[in-house]
Amino acid sequence: AKESAKKSFNDVRDDARAAWNKLLSRFTVKGTAKERSLFYTALYHTAVQPHDITDVDGRYRGADDKIYQTKVHYSEMSLWDTYRASHPFYTLAFPELVDGFINTLIAQSRQQGYLPIWPLRGQETDCMIGNPAVSVIADAYLKGFRGFDAETAWTEIVKSLENPRPNSRVD
Questions:
Q1: What is the pTM of this model?
Q2: CA–CA gap between residue 109 and residue 106 (Å, rounded)
Q3: Distance in Å from the first CA to the final CA of the chain
């Protein structure tokens, strides 16, 4: 009820359409109708995730199952899949989101003891290898994003690189 502000279904639908059109209008693409459709469809898919999992009051359940409060906390970040292209693209296409992404990575690392790889609904899935969040944080920092505590980010990077994750095998 709070999210819809007592709007009708049609009002909510129209607001969502307007928000998507505003986001998609950041780009002007020349080409055939099919080429433009392909581009805007891909852009739409890129913008669907990650998404903010905070409730209307800013609360969310952290990776340690405790309740936290913040402005924004993202999940569904398939970092193992997105660190190479999607996250660098976000720094160009959706820069207003990047600091929130990095703050989320730092928060989740502090809650679970290591940087996330594939968070789903705020919980680590432990389904991939490596430390892709390191690249995401470094890329944002090198591109001048400063809406996060760089020293804390560095601490979490080092901790994640020096210590095996609880569900990893070390032979």
A1: 0.90
A2: 5
A3: 52
